[in-house]
Amino acid sequence: MEQPFHNFSELFAQLGLGNSPEEIEAFILQHSPLLGEVRLADAPFWSSAQADFLQQALYADSDWVEIVDALNTALRDKRRFITEMRTS
Question: What's the structural domain count of the chain?
């Protein structure tokens, strides 16, 4: 059975964050760059519930893993993310 694919808007809603394209872009701009030695779930801007969700998504290989990995990449390379958001 194929796993469902989630997008940034759904992930941000799941995390209890604003999920419009503008709110997602603002979040990425505000919180990046995330340094290489900091694991995504350990970033200081997450609540404990958000951090737990992100950690479980990554390590339990849930249906959220692809978009959580994309968020991890976006927070480390905001320029590429913003370019992709504005051209899609």
Answer: 1
